[in-house]
Each structure stands twice: as C-alpha cells, then as structure tokens.
Amino acid sequence: MRRQAGFTLVELVMVIALAGIVAVMISTVLVRPMQGLIDQSRRAELVDQTSLALSRMARDIRLAVPNSVRVQGGDLELLRIHAAGRYLPNRAGAEGLRFAPGNASDCTVPGNDCQSFAVLDPALPVASARWLVLYNVGAESGGVPVVGSNLWAAAAADGRHVISPSGSSLSFTAGTGQGVLRLVPPGGSFAFSFASPQRRFYLADEVVGLSCDLANRRLLRYTRITLAPAFSAAQSEVLASDVTRCAFSYQPGSQQRAGLVSLSLGLSRDGESVELLQQVQVDNAP
Length: 286
Prior knowledge:
Layout: H1 9-62, E1 70-72, E2 75-86, E3 98-99, E4 116-119, E5 131-133, E6 140-141, E7 144-145, E8 169-173, E9 179-184, E10 190-191, E11 200-213, E12 218-224, E13 236-241, E14 243-251, E15 259-269, E16 272-282
Antiparallel strand pairs: 1-2, 2-11, 3-10, 4-9, 5-11, 6-7, 8-9, 11-12, 12-13, 14-15, 15-16
C-alpha cells in the first residue's frame, strides 16, 4: 500500500496562528504610513481650496477702482474696473469734465456736443460699463465717506460727484488716433467734482463683494449693479466651503504708500485644519 501524506489538525492551526501574527505585524507597520498619506492628501486638498479662494479674491481686489475698496459690516466691497483711459477736457479753459444737453461754443468736441469728450483710445471697450469715475479721492471724515469726494457717498449739494449718476447712458465713437465717449446722465446735466492731474478716467461695470457666512461655513462672492448695499445670498457664488475662520481688513495707505488688504481664511474638514493669510497691495492713485 502507498503511504499517504498530509497536514495534521495541529499543524494547520499553528500555520493559521503564525499567519495571523505576521498579518498583524505587517498591518501595524503599514497602517501609520497609510494614515499619514491620507491625512497629507486631505491637508493638501484644503490648502489648494484655500489658496484658490484667496487668489480669486486677490484678482478682484487688483481690479478695483482706486479708493473704492471698503470693509463694511464684515464684508469686503469694491467697484470693479471695466476699462480705463485718458481724456481731453471737454470745456475750453477747464481741465475737468462737465456735461449738459445741446451744443455750445466752449465745448471742445467736434460738433460742440457738450455731452461728449475725446479719449486717447480709438477702441475703448464701453459695452456693459455702467459708471464713469474721475479722480475718486476716497475722502473720509471719521470713517464716513465725504459727500461728492467718495464714490460711496452721495453727490454734493451742487450735483458734482466723482462718479457719474447711476442710469447714465454711455456710448463710444471710434476715430483716428482717438475716440469720443458720450455720457448722458438721467438729469441731463452733470459735472465731476475734480479734474484728474493725469487726465485719467475709469469705466466700472459692477460692485463685487466678499462675505463670510460662518453660520453655514461658506465664503461667498456676490455682485450687484447698484452702489447702494443690496446683498442677497441668492445672487452669490460659493468660493469656499468648510470655512471656520474668515476675516478682511483694509488699510487705505497714503500718497507715499499703497493701500493694503489683508485676507484671512481658515478651513477644517475631518479633523484637519488649515489657515492661510494673504495680503494684497492696492494702487489708489486716482
């Protein structure tokens, strides 16, 4: 008879026990590095999301009309530049811009149209622009915008302002070497408070705002086409979620020093937290 070979029950139990011990040892060695890799990936994702939100905010801030950045009620707001250029005065013997219906001999645009002025750009993009801003000095008194000198305040008693009235009509006619920009305010007549020493003007299209919705752990970006505050969460987009800290601060600066916006944003998810701070310089030369 042939001899039969095989495992005994005792040998099988011993093999199973040894295999279990080896598996436990291997898992103990591998679990910690694997968990570290998972944690690192989660932190990297949070850092990427935070950096992307801060970069988006910085891009908006760099497109702000000079002296239009403000922090109000915890929100950061600014008036966004649509286009910019240099102008020629539209009144003889004056350096500023003044508009009135009809024609007059002291209006310098060809045809003596008193609601137009020449710009040193033959292809100025005007479509979708809503406001014309000229030498917004952003003056404040006790933290309150000064009437007629800050675009967030009302016009002066004589109707002068640094920003054209809301609802004004803007149109552009291209020319050779320069163009003609026409402004028709709702009331017919309008004059800017100051002339720009560099004859620089800005076209703006909308107000951009950033809001910290910590109750819902979100950072919101909203836009509106009115200067008056009219925030609506329905008109906003989410820049970041899982937000645990969000703060804005603004130092206007001076003629010798640019303004400075500080953005602080913290995110937390599954026990991992990151917090980044970014500062953006603002050129407030009007």
